[in-house]
Amino acid sequence: MSMPAGDLAPRPLTMDRLGDRDELILAQSTSQCCRCCCFQPSINWVVAEGNNFTPGTNPYALDSVGWLHEESSWCGRTWSWILPGCRESKYVQHSGPAPASIMGENQGWFTCQTGEITQGLEESDRAANVVAIHEKKQTCGHCWTFLLPIPICNFCPLPYLETTNAETGEVVGKTLYVCDLCCFVPKYDIYDSNDNKIYRLRPDTCVAGLCVQCRCDGKKGKCCRVPFYLRDPETLDKLATTFGSLKAQVDVLWAGWKHECCTQKNAYHILFPLGATKDQKLLIMGSNVLVDVTMFEQEDDD
C-alpha cells in the first residue's frame, strides 16, 4: 500500500531539484551557546524545504533534504571569535538527510573541538552525495568584536566565499563582502563564474542610508530582524520572486524561545529571484552562509 503524498519524506536536494526550488530553509545544527575562543566548533547546517515552516517551531526537526559541514582549523576558529569572517573555511554541501553525527551535535557544550572535522562524522559521510563546496582562504575579518562590533574597511582581502559545483567541478561564482563609506550597512556583491556582478545582497536602510532598517513583519520571520534582499547590482532594485509581492531575500527565522535563547542556533529562509538558475541558487546558498559567518555567528557568541 502506497503512502499518501503528504506523508512522503522530501526527496534529496540534488542539483536538478535545486533548480525547481523557489525557497529553502538553511538552519544551523551546531549550538552557539557559550561557544567562544578555543571552544568555537565548526558550524554545520541542515537544509529543508521552505514551504513547511511554522514560526516559533523547531526548523531543525524538519525533514532535511541536504546538509553542510564545515572544515576549518582550531586556530582559525579561535581567532574568528574576535575577527568574524577571518578564518579559512570549507563548507561541503551534501544532498539527502543529515547524518546522526550532525543531528546529534552539542552533547557537551564546553567540548573543545581540536580537529577540522566534527567529532563522529564518518569519512563515508564526508564523501557522500556532495553537491557543492563553498570555501575561502584566510582573510581579514569584517570587524573587531572585543566589546562592540566595529567595522574595519582599510584591510584586505575582505571575507568572501567561492562556490564550486561538485558535479561539474566548475566554480560557479563567489560572494564578496563590500566595504564603502556606509561601513555600518553590511553588503555583499555576488559574481558569476566570469566575474560578472549579478546581485547585490543588502538590507534596507534608514538615516539617509547610514543604518540598517529592522523589520517586524512577515509570516515566518522574527521581530526586529534584518532581512538581506537580493538586488539588481546597478539599480539596487529588489528582485521579484514567484511569491507575488515578496522580494528575493535571505531572512532570519523565529525558531522559538528554546532555540533562540538556549542554543542560539541561526535559521534562515531563502527566497530565490525569479528566473535564477540552479548554479545561481547554489551561489546564493553560499552567500547566506557568508552573511551568517560575518554578521550573526559571533553576535551569538558574545
UniProtKB/TrEMBL annotation:
Show the GO MF annotations: phospholipid scramblase activity
**InterPro entries, per database record:** Scramblase
Q: Could you name the Gene Ontology cellular component terms for this entry?
A: plasma membrane
Family membership noted in the UniProt record: Belongs to the phospholipid scramblase family.
The protein, known as: Scramblase
Protein source organism: Seminavis robusta
Organism lineage reads as: Eukaryota, Sar, Stramenopiles, Ochrophyta, Bacillariophyta
